[in-house]
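Q: Got a minute? One more chain.
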Amino acid sequence: MTSSHFLCHSPIFTPSPNIIENRSLSSFRSHGSSFFDSKSRNRRTPFVRFMVSARKQVEIVYNPDERINKLADEVDKEAAPVSRLTLFSPCKINVFLRITNKREDGFHDLASLFHVISLGDVIKFSLSPSKAQDRLSTNVPGVPLDDRNLIIKALNLYRKKTGSNNFFWIHLDKKVPTGAGLGGGSSNAATALWAANQFNGFLATEKELQEWSSEIGSDVPFFFSQGAAYCTGRGEVVQNVPPPLPLDLPMVLIKPQQACSTAEVYKRLQLDRTSKSDPVTLLEKISRNGISQDVCINDLEPPAFEVLPSLKRLKQRVLAASRGQYGAVFMSGSGSTIVGIGSPDPPQFVYDDDEYRDVFLSEANFLTREENNWYTEPASRSARGSSSQFSQSIE
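A: Always. Here it is, folded:
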C-alpha cells in the first residue's frame, strides 16, 4: 500500500538534528470479526517516523491501516464490545432478469434470481474516538469518500434508526469494478449496516437491517438474504430460495473498461420488446434442470447493447468461441459484465486481442451464508484487472 508523506514546519519539536524516532503500533488483524486480543499487541509494525533537521522540518510517514490501528487502540481502552472488524463484501449476479412493468413512481418492476458470488471487496472498520464524522479511505481512485458513498449512507442510516453515536474509520479494499452490474456498492452498504450492528451490540435484527436498507438502494436488501433469492418489486422484495445451482459451479466474469449508465439503459428499454417468459417458470426450470442459455434471460441486454454496441459484440464472441465451454453466457444487471457459467477460464481471444487488453477478468462461484453470520471470503480468488482499476490511492 502506498504510504502518504507530509512535510511541515513545527515549533513544537526541538530535538537535536538528524534524530530519528521510531514508533510502533499493533498490526490490523487480517480477517473476520474479532475482539482485539492482548497477544496481537506484541506484533509491532512501524507507524510514524519523525526526521528532524536543523531547520526543524518534520517528515511524517504513515500507512492508512496503521492510522486505523492507532484509533482502535484508543477505543480499546474504553472496553467497547468490538473495536475493529474486517468483513468480506461479495457482489452478485442476476441469473435471469425480467422487467415486468413500468411503475407510477418512475421505477420498473422486476423479477429476478439474484445470487451472491465469491468475488468481493474487503472492508476494514474501526471505532473512531470522534463523535462527529466517519472517515473512509480506499485503494481505488475515483471512489467518493463522503456521504455520496453508500457505506457512509448506510452508517448514517444506522445512527438515524438506532440513535447510536458511534462513528468509524473505514478502509475499502476494492476488487469489484464499478459500473459492472454486480451490485458492488449495494453490497458495501449492506456490509456497513451489518458491521455497525455488531459494533453496537446487535441493536437491530437482520430483518430490520434488511427493511431499513431499502432506503439506500433497491439491491441492498438482497444481501441480507442467505445468498440466493427471488427478488421482485424494484428488487427490494426478497424471497429466500434454496440455492438452485451447485455452489462449486465455476464461472468467469468479463467486464470491459466501458460502463453502462443504468439510467440510460432503462431509458432505452421498450417493454413491448421484452421476453414473455414467466419468471417463476424460469426459476423452476433452473432449480430442476440447471443452467442453460434459454433460461438466462436479461431484458436489459437489448437496451444495454444499444448504449454500448461493443458489449453486444463481446457477448457474441464469447458465445462463438465457447464451443460448449459455458452452459450459458449473459449480461448481469444493467451491465457491463458478461458472465460465462460453466468454466472459470475466459476464451483465448480475450488474451490475444488488443481490444480486450484492459478488460477486468475474474473467476468466481456461487456463495451463501448462514443466518446470523456474514459472508466469508473464499480461501482463494483470481482476478485480473487493468492497472488503473487496482492502483493504490489513499485520500
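A: The CA atoms of residues 315 and 338 lie 7 Å apart.
Q: Perfect, thanks.
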